[in-house]
Specification:
The chain is an alpha/beta fold and 295 residues long. Helix content is 36%, strand content 24%.
């Protein structure tokens, strides 16, 4: 089974639009499982017209928090000095530490330094993952980080494990991952283990800059990739510069098309509509397939 990941350095450049379209196109020829790895703001299901109620959800524990055992604490304040996340404050009335669960990263430093073993590191339910069947014949796996919780990268790891298990059970030949934007932990977790990466950008200075930063991660893992320029015709001069930068890794252009907006508003993959952008994505899919299954 192959794993294809679609990423972008900057958000809002058309990554999920392309992910949903590629999933639909590949599913017409092979067994596909789609995975929405943007657990902070997942919307691949929306792009495919799937409602949240269609998912079978399960809560998961991929994060940890510090917890005080008050009767053991002797008020030495060593934990207060050890926390680099400012998650521990001091209650003068009780002469004991207080832990801010929203700032605590569960690193365990306070637990290690406590001479009385008065601090435990406990697992917390910080998110959920689930799966649903799309109307296009393939399963989508999605996850969500709970508000105020940490550990989105670890949720992506759990999400991909579930997606791979489903893909194996269904004997799927392709896993398509829609990564989060940027260069954070969820992005690293998304692209790790991929066979090919499609990097989406638009012709703006910010998007081009962030594309280069995201590709540094891809290159670190030595993963082959290709570049797609979305809305290329809004800045043709910069588009040409991006093409020169991409060189032989250039996969194609997608035109600015108001019908794409109509498709997104109506929760319909762009390739299921009759528009110029849809035809361009079909060509890009062919090039992606060639690179993905390159001997």
């Amino acid at each position: 089974m192959k794993t294809l990941t679609i990423l972008s350095g900057k958000g809002g450049v058309g990554k999920t639009m392309l992910s949903s379209s590629l999933a639909v196109l590949f599913a017409k020829q092979t067994k596909v499982v789609a995975c929405d790895c943007d657990v902070d703001a997942s919307n691949l299901a929306l792009a495919l017209g799937i409602e949240e109620s269609a998912f079978e959800w399960q809560e998961i524990e991929t994060s940890e928090k510090a917890k005080l055992i008050e009767e053991k604490c002797n008020g030495c304040k060593k934990c207060l000095q050890s926390c680099v996340f400012s998650a521990i404050s001091w209650n003068e009335e009780k002469n004991k530490p207080e832990f801010n669960r929203f700032l605590c990263e569960g690193c365990g430093a306070c637990s290690l330094i406590c001479p009385e073993n008065a601090i435990e590191i406990e697992r917390v339910k910080n998110g959920r993952i689930g799966s649903a069947k799309s109307m296009y014949g393939f399963t989508i796996v999605s996850g969500q980080l709970k508000m105020g919780e940490a550990g989105s990268g670890k949720i992506v790891d759990a999400l991909k494990e579930k997606a791979l298990a489903i893909a194996e059970k269904q004997r799927a030949e392709l896993l398509i991952c829609d990564s989060a934007a940027g260069i954070s932990c969820p992005v690293i977790a998304s692209i790790r283990g991929s066979d090919f990466v499609v990097a989406v950008t638009e012709p703006s200075p910010a998007s081009f800059r962030d594309l280069k930063r995201a590709l540094q991660i891809v290159n670190y893992f030595n993963i082959p990739y290709g570049i797609v320029i979305n809305k290329w015709d809004i800045n043709k001069e910069l588009s040409e510069e991006i093409e020169r930068f991409a060189s032989d890794k250039f996969l194609g252009r997608i035109s600015y098309d108001k019908k794409v907006i109509d498709a997104i508003v109506n929760l319909t993959p762009v390739v299921e509509t009759e528009c110029k952008a849809a035809k361009e994505i079909v060509k890009i899919k062919g090039r992606v397939k060639t690179q993905l299954y390159k001997p």
